[in-house]
Specification:
By secondary structure, the protein is mostly helical. The protein has two domains: 36 residues; 84 residues. 83% of the residues lie in helices and 0% in strands. The protein contains six helices and no strands. Helix 4 crosses helix 5 and helix 4 runs antiparallel to helix 6. The longest helix is centred in the middle third of the chain and has 35 residues. It starts with a helix and ends in a 9-residue tail after the last helix.
Length: 138
């Protein structure tokens, strides 16, 4: 919604319609960059994991666990943010919840970092534990 607010605010100030149409184009360009980067990282991660069945199992379990934790955290922040907003709660924990609810963009960077870090940690653990030497019976 930030793009809608920015576009409508600029329209009120008298910006031409052609200039306002630049906002969706910029949003599209940004999303294309992020989605392409995500696709490249995931292609590398899944390509690495699916070569070895043990790696595939460990990687899938790790990614599933991290996805569940992230979903619970995001849902918790949303729920607590709604409670804080509806009841006007402030101070201490509620200030942290309100900040997190207002800054999901920043939290998104942390989530991406967690997924990339989990892939790197999985790679290092597989190397150190010798899982690279274990092959499936064919």
């Amino acid at each position: 919604m930030p793009n809608c607010r920015a576009a409508s605010a600029q329209a009120v100030k008298g910006l031409s319609i052609w200039s306002i149409l630049g906002f969706p184009a910029l949003f599209t360009a940004g999303m294309t960059l992020v989605d392409t980067s995500d696709g490249i990282v995931m292609l590398g991660a899944y390509g690495w994991a699916f070569v070895n069945p043990l790696r595939k199992l460990i990687y899938n379990l790790t990614i599933t666990l991290i996805s569940v934790v992230v979903a619970v955290v995001v849902g918790g922040i949303e729920a607590l943010g709604l409670v804080a907003q509806k009841f006007g709660l402030a101070g201490g924990l509620w200030d942290a919840v309100n900040w997190a609810a207002d800054n999901f963009g920043v939290l998104g960077y942390f989530v991406v970092g967690i997924f990339v870090t989990s892939w790197l940690v999985s790679f290092v653990i597989c190397r150190l534990m010798g899982y690279e030497k274990i092959h499936s019976a064919q």
